[in-house]
Design goal:
59% of the residues lie in helices and 1% in strands. With 469 residues, the chain is an all-alpha fold. A two-stranded antiparallel sheet has the order 1-2. The two termini are 38 Å apart.
């Protein structure tokens, strides 16, 4: 029951500034993740606070708001003292306990509407720096445990005015993350990659640039960095974090009018949706990515997006639709590389095409066809891409096991275990564990038994941390 004398919280409204209620709610959710809280804040909640309906937040929201505005008290934020709203005489709507939102709204689902809610989930194309009215752009570095320090460090300059040096540093961070992921996998890299990502968005907030071209590069670089960090979250099993990063990149693309970044964000969103068991969303995100990419002059990008669609259709059991999408992908791929191919697509060679097709047939239960393409993928893969080599062989191990070729599956599984000393990927370890479970029923065969014994004794990868970026 709401008191008829509810007093609007004008202080809180002033703190929101020019942001919409949805954008501010997204900033609240991000701040919550930064301190390990989970709150289901949305535009309606912000409206209830500003109208005075919520006179004092619960403890979870209190911790988040005080984190967002260091040095402030609840009273400074326009709230009433807790004791004044918890007694019998307090007439206020009781605020529900915070609810964790395990999967925020999918960025691929609202692409065709004018009231797209992606900027909400992007959760801060503009970060909240209310402390002193100015932002402090901190230096940030990227390192990977176990890799040589000289090869695993990227720094972003601590400077307010944004120029060539700062933009180049963001672009260098993107390339370095991709290089380290190719060599080592995501598990040991994700937390460190959070640092340059934060710094890149602080540069967007705090910096002024002399030229529009520099600003455009900074937006593109920050968005690509968000996609790269999202991929690290994806590959290390942090699906909710990955989805948030991809949505952040998508909103950055929309803000900057960057069709290439938009296509990349949708491409990765489709991939994530497939892995998360949301095949219909995978299809729609791939279709949205194709619309964004159609003017970019990159047949290879269109081929990859067609394969993302094929993966979603395989998950839906749509064999005909999957086959057609694969056909489009192969036709586009055969047109060869082009000047419009994005830099991030350097991984998409024939080996990757074969691997993605193998995964489609595997999802449809066509194990012989899956193993045929899986063998091609492993034969074609550049051995320098250690992580992908482990991934391809893991996929092949599972498909061989399901096809009944257990001795070959065990031999391939041993090759994967040889690589896992150098590759940290929860996704790959999970796939290999699935293959091992299939082989358990044939553990009497000596090659299979040897593999299973070695697999059980292999050290597990580092557990995913609960924190986000």
């Amino acid at each position: 029951m709401v008191s008829t004398a509810a007093v609007p919280n004008l202080v809180f409204r002033q703190l929101r500034g020019q942001r919409s209620a949805g954008e501010f709610a997204a900033a609240v959710r991000r701040a919550a993740r930064e301190i390990g809280e989970q709150v289901a804040c949305d535009a309606r909640y912000i409206g209830r606070v500003e109208s005075g309906e919520i006179r004092c937040p619960n403890y979870a929201y209190e911790r988040v708001f005080l984190h967002m505005f260091p040095g402030a008290s609840l009273a400074d934020l326009g709230f009433s003292a807790r004791e004044s709203v918890r007694g019998r005489g307090a007439r206020v709507v009781s605020e529900p306990a915070p609810v964790a939102a395990p999967f925020p709204p999918g960025p691929g689902l609202h692409r065709d509407t004018e009231t797209d809610d992606i900027p909400e989930e992007s959760d801060v194309l503009r970060r909240v720096f209310m402390t002193s009215g100015t932002a402090t752009v901190a230096a940030a570095s990227l390192g990977l445990g176990g890799a040589p320090a000289s090869a695993a460090r990227v720094s972003l300059p601590a400077q307010r005015r944004v120029g060539e040096a700062e933009v180049s540093a963001v672009e260098k961070a993107v390339r370095q993350i991709r290089l380290l992921d190719d060599r080592h996998g995501a598990d040991g890299l994700y937390q460190r990659a959070a640092q340059p990502l934060r710094a890149a968005y602080e540069l967007l907030d705090a910096g002024t640039t002399a030229r529009r071209a520099t600003s455009d590069r900074l937006h593109s670089g920050a968005g690509e960095l968000a996609v790269s960090v999202g991929w690290l979250a994806h590959d290390s099993g942090r699906f909710a974090d990955a989805r948030s990063h991809y949505a952040e990149a998508l909103a950055t693309a929309r803000l900057a009018g960057d069709a290439g970044l938009e296509a990349h964000a949708f491409c990765n969103t489709s991939f994530l949706a497939r892995d998360a068991g949301r095949p219909r969303e995978a299809v729609r995100a791939a279709e949205a990515g194709r619309r964004a990419a159609r003017t970019l002059g990159s047949p290879r990008l269109l081929a990859l997006l067609a394969l993302r669609e094929a993966g979603g259709r395989a998950g839906l059991g749509d064999r005909t639709g999957c086959d057609r999408a694969i056909g489009r992908a192969r036709a586009a791929f055969e047109r060869g590389p082009a000047a419009g191919d994005p830099e991030w697509m350097s991984f998409f060679q024939e080996a990757e095409l074969e691997l993605l097709e193998a995964q489609c047939w595997s999802a449809l239960g066509d194990w012989p066809r899956a193993t045929r393409h899986g063998r091609r993928a492993t034969a074609l893969q550049d051995p320098h891409f250690t992580r992908n080599l482990a991934l391809y062989r893991t996929q092949l191990t599972g498909d061989l096991a399901r096809a009944g070729r257990v001795d070959e599956a065990a031999a391939t599984g041993h090759q994967v275990l040889d690589l896992l000393n150098r590759v940290q990927s929860s996704r790959i370890r999970g796939m290999l564990a699935g293959a091992a479970r299939v082989l358990e029923s044939r553990s009497g065969a000596t090659p299979v038994a040897d593999f299973l014994t070695r697999h059980r004794s292999s050290p597990p990868g580092p557990p995913p941390s609960p924190s986000g970026v």
